[in-house]
Sequence to fold (149 residues):
Amino acid sequence: MKAKMYLYVLMLLLGVVLAVHLAMNSQVGLTLNNPQMGNAIFWCIGAVTAVIIGLTQWEPEVFSRLKDVPLWLLTAGAIGAALVFGIAWIIPQIGAAPAFLLMIAGQVIAGMVMSHYGFLGAPVEPISITKILGALMLIGGAGLVTFSK
Fold:
């Protein structure tokens, strides 16, 4: 675990970046008075950036291996676009803290189930009473932050 500690810290920082990124997307939509167009602009910029990053590891053989990727896995791009739009649309309506806490609670629950079954290549980690209690505490905390004044 100690050897991987930097990965845990990096993941925490990525969570911070994601929160800021989504709030920025939300503000673009509010400024334009059109969250759909704000999201579209964000994804266009993201697509150009992804292509630039991808070109740094150019490997033409990738395209011939693309046929080996199940079609349903390629829907992740559309899911990501819809996800970011949904989050950017909801943040101004319920606030950043409730939006992120509820999203994190959903991720924890999904992550526990995915790890329990090894879904999508996740290392198998059985759900335990301790993990269930931790998830319930997180959901309770999300409820307190979301619904308390």
Summary: The first helix runs from residue 5 to 32. The mean pLDDT is 87.
